[in-house]
Input
Amino acid sequence: MSLKKIKVHPYLIPKPVAIIGANIEEKANFLTIADLCTTGYKIPRFVISSGKGHYTNKGILENKEFSVTIPSSTLVKEADYVGIKSGKKVDKSKIFDIFYGELKYAPLIKNAPITHSCELVENVDFGDTHYLFIGEIKETYVNEKVMEGRIPDIKKVDAFSYYYDNNYYSVGNVIAQAYKVGKELE
Output
């Protein structure tokens, strides 16, 4: 196998799709992103990279709260819509059936398999095109139908990812058991 050098780009594969929610002027607004990761388990956090032009940023910066929802493939149209339409121009507050937990500025999505409310702990502004929001997860709600024992079942969650060819892809096929398959090399 030969390797070919190409343009530098962060080819993270798969890129998980998440819907970010924040209140702006007492109204819920949502944005779909595929640039996020988690950090830590004792103090669980999300790290979100959001382009500076996104309207949702206003609510995150003003209220210091936001939500991170993992949509199922049944919500792909809604997820795509809130990603391509700006809250500056359209009211996205009625796209989802929402509720609020302990954080009053983090709109949570009822019909999603997993939804989290987060408190902004830090905003890293690189001075160029994006904000890096770091939020501590304060609450997590999971649809009971996707639970398998004490954790959400990846197949039942039916999450999807985004790829650079502008398509969404499903996830969830087991290929090996973690913390075990590598032992075969010993």
Summary: Helices lie at 56-63, 76-84, 154-157. The first strand starts at residue 15 and ends at 16. The radius of gyration is 17 Å. Residues 76-84 form the longest helix (9 residues).
